[in-house]
Amino acid sequence: MASRYHEVYDGWKRDPEKFWANAAKAIDWFTPFDTVFDPNAGVYGRWFGGASCNTCFNAVDRHVAGERADQIALIHDSAISGTIRKFTYAELKREVVALTSVLKNRGVQKGDRVIIYMPMVPEAAFAMLACARIGAVHSVVFGGFASHELATRIDDARPKLIISASCGLEPGRVVAYKPLLDKAIEMSRHKPEACLILQRDQLPCELRENHDIDYADAVARERAAGANVDCVPVLATDPLYIIYTSGTTGQPKGIVRDNGGHMVALKWSMENEFGVKPGEVFWAASDVGWVVGHSYIVYGPLLHGCTTVMFEGKPVGTPDAGTYWRVIAEHGVVALFTAPTAFRAIKGQDPKGEFVPKYDLSKFRTLFLAGERADPETIKWAEQKLSVPVIDHWWQTETGSPMTINPAGLGLLPVKYGSPGVPMPGYDIRVLDDAGHEVPRGTLGNVVVKLPLPAGCLPTLWNADDRFRQAYLDEFPGFYKTADAGMMDEDGYLFVMARTDDIINVAGHRLSTGAMEEVLAGHPDVAECAVIGIADAIKGQVPLGFVVLNAGVARDTGTIETEVVTLVRERIGPVAAFKTVVTIKRLPKTRSGKILRGTMQKIADKEEWTMPATIDDPIILDEITAALKGRGIGL
C-alpha cells in the first residue's frame, strides 16, 4: 500500500495540538485535559495538563471490562528453565490487584517510590502495574546490577519498599540477587521499610525477620481474602516511573516518565509505527530493566490490547541459534523487536540460517531492530533468511518510543540501508554544527530535536531540573541534544553514525567509527565488529578495528585482517588511516547488548578505567587487553 507517512507527519507539523488531541482519544481519561500542551509548565512545557487518568486501568482493567478478559495478555517463556506460563487479561488483573493490596497494606500510596529489582519473570510486570494502579512511582533496576549501582539508585529514588527475587537465571549459572540487594541496602543512606521477595525454586534465599516478606505468601493471602483495590486517579503530568540511564557513574540520571503523554505516545506507536493490531502477539526481546522492556514488553502492548511475550533466555545458547524462531512459531508472534547484537550473535552461530526453515514462521510479519546501530550486512542477512521487512529504528531511554522509524503501520517507505528511517510525528529533527548552525543535507553533525519534545518524552530528571537543562538543553538553545552524531539525506532519512564521542578526528578529518564498522561487517567471515579511535602522536587519533569471526571460520586470521583493512581503504579511502584490525573471541558488552567502546579505547590508550557496572562478562576485558598487548598496543 502507498505510505501515509508524509500526510500524517505534515498534519502533525501543521497543527501539533490537534494531532496529539486526536491521538489522546485512544486513552480512557477519568477527567479530560484543560490544555493539550502548556508551554509555561515544567522545564519546556507539559502535555495534557489538568487531565486525570490511570495507566494500569488503560493497560488492564478496560480490556477486562471490554471483550479481552479471556484473551492471553502475557506469555512468559523461559528458555533457561524450560517453562511457559500464560495469563489472560482477567488473570493479569487478579495478580496485579492482589499485589497492589499487599503494597497498600504496607503503607505504599500515591507518589511513594518502589524499586523493582527483578529477573525476567511475570511478577516484574505485575509489580510495575501494581505501582501504577495506586499512583506509586516505580523504578525498575536491571536485575543482577552490582550492589553499588543499586545503592546509588536507592539513595536517589528513596523507595518506601523494594520488590525483588531470590535469584536470576543466566545460561549455565544462577545469579543470587538477595546478597546483592542486602549489601546495597547496607551501603545506601536511605533505608527502605521492607523488601518483598519472590522465592524462585532454582535458588531460594533466607528472609530477614521483620523486614523481608515472602511475595507468594503475601499475594496468596490477599487473593484468598478477595482483596480489591481500585485504580487511583493521578494527573496526566504525575510521574509513572523513574528509569536510570545505564552505566552512570556517581550521581545517576533518573529519567522521569509521566502518565498521560506516555500512554498516548505508546498507544499511537503500536499500530502506526509497529503495524500491530489489538489481539495480535508482539514480542520485544529485551529486559524489563531497560526502556524497551518498559515501553514494549509491558506498557505499549498491554495499552494496545495485544498479547505480549516476556522471554527469559538468550538468542544463542538457550539451547541454540534457533531459539528465537521457536518462540515466534510457538506463540504466533507477528512482530519481533530486538537489538542488532542479538542478530549478529545468531548470524555468527548459524551463518547459513539453517535453523530458520525448521520452524513455522507463517504468522511473522516484521522484524524491528534498535538499541544501537544496525549495520546493513546484518539487516540484509535477516531479510534474506526471514523473508520479511527488517526495520531499523532509533530512539533513546529519554524519549520512550521511536524518534525515527520506517513506519510499518502507515505503510513502508523505501528502505535505505544504514538509516533508521524518517522522523516520527512530534520530532522535528535537525543536524547542527558545534556552533549551533544547521548543516547542509548529507553533512555530519550533531543530531538535535526542536523543542518542545513530544508527548511521552521525559519532562525532566528526577528532582534535578537544572541538571536536565544542563545535560540536554543548554548546549543548543531551543533544541534537545541527543548526543548522537549523524546526517539527514535529501529525502529526509536520518543516518545516525555514532555517539558524538565516537566521532574521531584523524589529522583534522572528522570521521565516523560507525561508517567504518559498516565496512568491517561487510566482510563475509566477520560476525561482529567494533571500531574505536586511539591516540596517535602524529594524526591525533587513528582508528583501531576489532573483529569477531563467524563460527566455523578456519582461514588464517592475518589474511582476514589484511582483507578487512583493504576493504576500508577501498570504501572510505586512505583518509581514514585505517591500518590495524585485531581478531578477538568476543566483544565486551553491557547486558542490554551495547558494545563498550569507551572502555576498549581506555585500555588501548593506557588510560585509567573502571569496570562498567552494566558489563555482561568482565573477563572479556582481560581477553581484549591480552589481544592488544599481543599487537604491541596498550603496553
The major pleated sheet works out as: 7 strands, mixed
Question: How many structural domains does the protein architecture include?
Answer: 2
Instruction: Give the CATH class of the largest domain.
Output: Alpha Beta
CATH topology assignment of the largest domain:
Rossmann fold
Tell me the Rg in angstroms.
Answer: 24 Å
Q: pLDDT under 50 segments (min length 5)?
A: none
What coarse outline follows from CA principal-axis ratios? Answer: globular
Strand order of the largest sheet: 5-4-17-16-18-19-20
Mind telling me the CATH superfamily name of the largest domain?
Answer: ANL, N-terminal domain
Class per helix and strand makeup: alpha/beta
Q: Indicate the percent of residues in helices.
A: 25-40%
Instruction: Give the number of DSSP strands.
Output: 31
Report the span from N to C terminus.
Answer: 58 Å
Domain AMP-binding enzyme C-terminal: 516-594
InterPro entries: ACAS_N, AMP-bd_C, AMP-bd_C_sf, AMP-binding_CS, AMP-dep_synth/lig_dom, ANL_N_sf
Domain AMP-dependent synthetase/ligase: 64-452
Protein name: Propionyl-CoA synthetase
Structure in a nutshell:
With 635 residues, the chain is of the alpha/beta class. It is built from 18 helices and 31 strands. Helix 3 (55-65) runs parallel beside helix 10 (291-303), helix 12 (340-349) crosses helix 13 (376-386) and helix 17 (597-604) packs across helix 18 (619-630).
